[in-house]
Amino acid sequence: MLNRVRSAVAHLVSSGGAPPPRPKSPDLPNAPSPQTAAPPEAPRSPPATAGSGSAAPAKTVEARASFSRPTFLQLSPGGLRRAVDHAGRAVQSPPDTGRRLPWSTGYAEVINAGKSRHNEDQACCEVVYVEGRRSVSGAPREPSQGQGLCFYYWGLFDGHAGGGAAEMAARLLHRHIREQLKDLVEILQDPSPPPLCLPSTPGAPGSSDSSHLVGPQSCWSSQKEVTHESLVVGAIENAFQFMDEQMARERRGHQVEGGCCALVVVYLLGKVYVANAGDSRAIIVRNGEIIPMSREFTPETERQRLQLLGFLKPELLGGEFTHLEFPRRIQPKELGQRMLYRDQNMTGWAYKKIELEDLRFPLVCGEGKKARVMATIGVTRGLGDHNLKVCSSTLPIKPFLSCFPEVRVYDLTQYEHCPDDVLVLGTDGLWDVTSDCEVQSSGPSSGPGGPGHPPGPWLASPQQQAGFRG
């Protein structure tokens, strides 16, 4: 598989300062709701050159969004033309206008020559204010009661088979996270343990007395402890699911093409939450030490989950695939012989007698960057891909793909940091051509400020950029 050659770098430091005051509403996206005047599906970036593919009739299908890049790049028409130049492959970064992105964030991207006509990836950097929806008592919150929460948000979306899913996720995923956090505003600001059950709104379905349905308390040996941190993790996980469901609903009317891997960072109340669904990667460089903040989800790393699903639901294999894995493709002449295999329960290998069903194509095949699910896709988690089918078949692949991210948490208050400490986010195109150590050594040698001051944005030198291109 050709290397996706573009890199994305986001810098975070522990001493970034206290959360800013509530931003004015025009600077923040509106929450998707029936009362919103402008639908959330409106284009996020100004249109540029038209994308590939034929246009759909305006009367039946909304026109496909024009090719666009992240708005914070502020690309001119000439910059947009350079962004699709497969020969020059210019590195695109935010302009030096004196106005920095939050937390002195740095960013760089370059098109993957020969892979697709346009860059199918997207990025997002936002400061989002969350206003509580209701109090813990169940009564609607008065506007003057309490304060909301502000979180920083960074996202990288590695698109494939079209840029629609990545563009939609870049515009809307942080809104879904905000929506999920609305019920938690008061809870997260209260140091006491979170309530296990929130009261329903009076008169709402399910609000009638159901105490007669509750069994004796003796059936519960103990009560599970739930932390505030786990509530934020659950909010992010739910947001990914709702984003994927919205893509499924709107994939026809708005032509949400393809799918995307998603790597998202949320900074809230002193903690960094890194959510990864796909094969992108995040690392923290702290005092010269590399701390992994994600792991890649590929057919190899999720082999057992995929095989278990194929074993439990063989109809998803369509009679064309086997959930078992073999060291190589079995030949018909080898029927009756014994060959090494492994199933969903095994990490090692054992021998089994080859039967007729074993001649089917394996659910997971290949190694490394060539590993595929159903001989089609090389990632196992992400958003979109609702129309993805096995090549030359009508068999859908989406049931094997998960939209749920793995979320890792880093508590900034628990460690000492220096101005050179950074969090680096990159899609697989960066990590295909360089290692964690090489990225770490390419970072800033010194921050412009002293301790307690965020470093300025780091951009690689021209020699480093050439190496990152591959």
TrEMBL record:
Residues 461-470 have a biased composition (Polar residues). One of its GO terms (cellular component) is mitochondrion. Residues 47-58 have a biased composition (Low complexity). Residues 104-470 form the PPM-type phosphatase domain. Residues 1-63, 437-470 are annotated as: Disordered. GO terms for molecular function: [pyruvate dehydrogenase (acetyl-transferring)]-phosphatase activity. Pfam families: PP2C. This is Protein phosphatase 1J isoform X4. It comes from Mustela putorius furo (European domestic ferret). The gene is PPM1J.
